[in-house]
Design brief:
4 helices; membrane; transmembrane; F0F1 ATP synthase assembly protein I
């Protein structure tokens, strides 16, 4: 893996770590305030958000650079497709097989996890502008 791809992968790993922290905090808040079934639903919402993003990050940052531009585009496109398919499968599995799924914590944690990369981008932009 070249240095440019490695840099992109490190950014993606940082975003995934921030997402994981947000998920854990949501699970703990739900556990403390509402009990196990809410915390379990929050955890499942986080997993539905995190796993497809991990797969996308792996696929999207396999290649980098001008000499590999076609590979970059193909890897990104396949990563997006796999992310969407995995997301749909995970949603379907949760809705079909989890009997005590509580929807508010499930979707709130899902949306918080999906929003995490945007927050990191804003923070990074603010930090870069301050330097």
């Amino acid at each position: 893996m070249n240095k440019l791809a490695q840099k992109g992968r490190m950014i993606a790993i940082r975003q995934l770590k921030i997402t994981l922290i947000i998920i854990v905090l949501s699970v703990l808040v739900n556990l403390g305030m509402f009990g196990f079934s809410f915390a379990q639903s929050a955890a499942l919402g986080g997993i539905v958000a995190l796993l497809p993003n991990m797969l996308f990050a792996y696929k999207a940052f396999q290649y980098a650079g001008a000499s590999a531009s076609r590979k970059v585009v193909d890897a990104f496109n396949s990563g997006v497709k796999l992310k969407l398919v995995l997301s749909a499968i995970l949603f379907a599995l949760c809705f079909k097989f989890i009997e005590n799924l509580v929807l508010p914590p499930f979707f709130i944690t899902y949306f918080l996890a999906m929003f995490a990369p945007f927050v990191q981008a804003v923070v990074n932009s603010f930090t870069i502008n301050q330097q």
